[in-house]
């Protein structure tokens, strides 16, 4: 490890510490880290200006902005309040049933939509539900973040890291499901049970619900129906046009423009309501991760590790699972997928369905260990902050570590049995 790599590791650690301790706002902490990354990166010629621009995933930022605008317009129409009233009515005031339902819906939605999109939609509904029932929103938000991160693990389009791995490994859509669907379904049950046991005392008490008609909460039915149309259009286009080469960010921005055009709302007021702090935090943090990746330290360490265990199928698979899982707790799982994929593909002893499946599981399951593990957790923390609730790094991490270790432990058992690695 040379001097430059040590500097970039220290910058990354500093960013984490500033964000965790909240000495300064999280967005400012990420921007400080980005500034130091740019300064030392250019000083030591680790990267160029042109390369540095690519550290920020502009497609993700545009996707977030587009969906935020659509969600804000839908929120103004009363759509989420309407849905929340129905959800509360169906649960009959039972917080346990409501909690399990939210967890399942959060995971299921993320199978079809990108994780950031799912987080925005679920967060808007949860905020309304917890306000209506005066429940502590923290258990519901944390659980939704973890379940959204877990959802979509077994599909090629479930996450960006899955797409990276699938393309590198040559694993098709049906093969993804064949290898991992059973594992994901089991993980849903295990994770929901663990979350319920952790939060059962904070879910609230069953309440006697007054008789009410959810339609009474809708003041502008024209905007209400238009919002439904835009959301349905957003989902349909996500599921169809991306397969034709049209990016998700283009779909989101197109729907956002349509929402602004037909809502009749003042665009300036909508723009004020967008979560700009989360946008700046994610942008700055992506820049820090991009600088760290440019030092090649991740590639060097993983190549040395895998060269050692590559001759043992069992050792290679479990090492891939745990190293990628733990690494994804601190570094973007996209970066981990991009780093490990060429290494696995280039070492004969590693290039097998078992190891590729382990990489998929590791990069997904490690993505909700801390509030800084990925875009979903960052956005969830931002959504809570908009509700006036500050979620500490330690409070989330305590839950994230438990669920991640449970998930990785079960995944270890699964890959050994599924691919007959004990033989």
Short description:
75% of the residues lie in helices and 0% in strands. By secondary structure, the chain is mainly alpha-helical.
What report would you give on this structure?
This protein is an all-alpha fold. It has 20 helices and no strands. The chain has helices at residues 3-21, 26-43, 49-53, 58-77, 79-91, 95-112, 115-133, 137-150, 160-169, 173-199, 221-240, 248-263, 267-273, 276-294, 297-309, 313-327, 333-346, 353-365, 375-386, 393-418. The chain starts with a helix and ends in a 5-residue tail after the last helix. The relative contact order is 0.15. The model has no long low-confidence stretch (mean pLDDT 82).
Roughly what is the average pLDDT, rounded to an integer? Answer: 82
Quick one: how many beta strands?
A: 0
Q: Which class of secondary structure composition applies to the elements?
A: mainly alpha
For this entry, what is the oligomeric state of its chains?
single chain
- Cα(first) to Cα(last) distance is 38 Å
Classify the beta-strand content into a percent band.
under 5%
Number of DSSP helices? 20
**Which parts are unreliable, with pLDDT below 50 for 5 consecutive residues or more?**
none
Q: What kind of sheet is the major sheet?
A: none
Order of helices and strands: HHHHHHHHHHHHHHHHHHHH
What is the helical fraction, as a range of percent? over 70%
Shape: globular
C-alpha Rg (nearest Å) = 22 Å
């Amino acid at each position: 490890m040379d001097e430059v790599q040590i500097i970039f590791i220290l910058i990354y650690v500093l960013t984490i510490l500033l964000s965790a301790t909240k000495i300064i706002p999280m967005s400012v902490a990420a921007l400080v880290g980005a500034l130091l990354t740019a300064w030392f990166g250019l000083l030591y010629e680790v990267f160029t200006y042109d390369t540095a621009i690519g550290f920020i995933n502009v497609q993700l930022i545009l996707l977030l902005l587009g969906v935020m605008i659509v969600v804000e317009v839908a929120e103004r129409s009363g759509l989420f309040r309407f849905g929340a009233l129905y959800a509360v009515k169906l649960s009959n005031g039972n917080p346990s049933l409501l909690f399990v339902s939210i967890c399942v819906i959060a995971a299921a939605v993320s199978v079809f939509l990108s994780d950031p999109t799912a987080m925005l939609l679920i967060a808007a509904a949860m905020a309304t539900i917890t306000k209506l029932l005066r429940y502590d929103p923290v258990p519901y938000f944390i659980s939704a973040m973890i379940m959204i991160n877990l959802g979509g693990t077994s599909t090629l389009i479930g996450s960006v890291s899955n797409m990276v791995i699938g393309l590198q490994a040559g694993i098709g859509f049906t093969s993804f499901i064949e290898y991992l669907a059973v594992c994901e379904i089991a993980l849903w049950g295990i994770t929901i049970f663990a979350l319920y046991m952790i939060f059962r005392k904070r879910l609230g008490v069953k309440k006697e619900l007054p008789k009410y008609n959810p339609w009474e909460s809708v003041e502008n039915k024209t905007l209400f129906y238009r919002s439904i149309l835009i959301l349905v259009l957003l989902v349909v286009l996500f599921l169809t046009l991306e397969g034709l080469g049209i990016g998700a960010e283009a779909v989101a921005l197109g729907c956002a423009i349509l929402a602004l055009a037909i809502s009749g709302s003042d665009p300036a007021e909508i723009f004020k309501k967008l979560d700009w702090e989360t946008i700046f935090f994610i942008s700055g943090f992506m820049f820090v991760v991009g600088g760290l990746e440019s030092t090649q330290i991740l590639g060097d360490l993983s190549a040395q590790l895998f060269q050692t265990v590559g001759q043992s199928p069992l050792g290679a698979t479990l090492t891939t699972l745990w190293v990628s899982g733990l690494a994804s707790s601190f570094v973007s799982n996209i970066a981990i997928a991009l780093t490990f994929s060429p290494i696995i593909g280039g070492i004969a002893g590693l290039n097998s369905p078992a190891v590729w499946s382990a990489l998929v599981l590791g990069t997904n399951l490690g993505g909700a260990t801390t509030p800084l593990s990925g875009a979903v957790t960052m956005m969830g923390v931002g959504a809570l902050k908009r509700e006036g609730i500050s979620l500490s790094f330690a409070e989330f991490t305590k839950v994230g570590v438990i669920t991640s270790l449970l998930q990785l432990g079960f995944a270890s058992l699964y890959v050994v049995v599924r691919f007959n690695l004990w033989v």
